Amino acid sequence: MKLKIWAVVLVIVIGIISFWVLRNVVFCEECGQQVTEMPQDATNAVYDIKFELNEAGEFQVAASVDVTNDSSDSWSEIRFYLVPNAMNSVETPLYEDEELEIEVSAVSVDGQEAAYNLDNNELMVELDAGLETASEAKVAIEYSMVLPQNGMRLSQVDDNYYLAHWYPMLGHYQDGWDINDYDPIGESYDTDYGDFTVTFDLPKDYLVASSAEDGPIEATSTGTVSGENIKDFYMAIMNPDEWEFETVQANNTDLRVFTPRSANMLEETSELAVDAYVYFEENIGDNPFGELDIIGNDGYMEYPNIIEVAADAASQESVLVHEIAHQWFYFIVTNDSYNEAWLDEGVTEFSSSLFLSDYYDNEEYGFWGALTAEEYYPPETYVNLPLDQFEDESYYSTIYGKVPMLLKEHFDLLDEDEAALEFLSAYYKEFQFKQVNTEEFKVFFEDYFEGDQSEFLNSWLE
Ligand SMILES: [Zn+2]
């Protein structure tokens, strides 16, 4: 009898120890790979957004954001990006599209009306009492907006609505608020991870695809979607008559693919998407999200868990692979894309060139896009410049051309198979769900290659 009790105790103790040892290392049984775990409590912004679209194409938005002060400073204000306010030619000189109309009707903090200032794409909300470290404030913002027809990113195209950077996005606080003016050349907003619940009410049934896990594809006029650890929340609202769609499986993620009926490219888009997604998971690392939406609307843009790709078969390949790679570099490893676009765009273009090289077993073909970009215009010496210090042409040739080409050269010299992918995999593992900057990249690079790499790094990183 006594022995039996001891045996039971031993089994329980072993169980507890195994649980603690194994809880941080989870393996996917099908693929035999380490699985990326979603971080817990990693965000300081919890968004609850409700919006209504009426038949005239006007959005009424009520956004409530629970903001936690995750810094060691006391805050006297909270700053958000409200990009729609800069989507006109008065605020943004380069802006050429039809202008977006926005009207803010109410701003409150913890239920009390609050003073605020709206300047370019920055919304500054004053706090009557200071917000101390680890304290929370509920900021509520109500506004209406009409999207520009065929605008850039945040746009209405016929009876389709593309909601990019459409809500008050909490700025990233690091030794102060650092919100730059909207710059359409790249992504000028630097946001951190947040948790989202978005409730929508539409005038009729639409196809809805968002940064959340939306589930089976069916047209609907109302719904609530939610997701955690999302860097910025995008949503497409599409007229069901214009799209064909299907859901395909890439490892344990659903890819929901939407292409225009007129383009007749659903099958090839889905096939290439699965191949690229599986390649990045197997060579760089597990993507912990369950759904990626792919919209062939000629947007050429990445958002968390959803991408806008080409609407024609000729441009589709390079754009599709590039935007899928952004899920690893931009979203899961994130950075300030205003000041250091090379970290998201350059590393992404390098990754997609590696995929295309392997896919066709042809390196020249795989890096053709990067080489063409580099030769298109003389690149800058240093690649880690803020957006406003590039010319349009040198931004493109430096970030999409020079960065992938010099990384290729470095790994080619090592003359080891898979050296580049192994490096990207280690880098992904180190920085997932974190903000990385040039300095941290340099330190990681030197540690990884165990020695002084300053001659190489200092020749292109300022
Ligand atoms: Zn990109």
From TrEMBL:
Q: Which residues form the Peptidase M1 membrane alanine aminopeptidase domain?
A: 310-460
**InterPro entries recorded for this chain?**
M1_LTA4H, Peptidase_M1_dom, Peptidase_M4/M1_CTD_sf
Q: Which Pfam families match?
A: Peptidase_M1
Chain ranges passing through the membrane: 5-22
Task: Reply yes or no: does the keyword Cytoplasm apply.
Answer: no
Q: What is this protein called?
A: Peptidase M1 membrane alanine aminopeptidase domain-containing protein
Alphabetical UniProt keywords: Membrane, Transmembrane, Transmembrane helix
Gene3D superfamilies documented for this protein: Neutral Protease Domain 2
Source organism of this protein record: Planomicrobium stackebrandtii
Specify the domain of life of the species encoding this protein: Bacteria
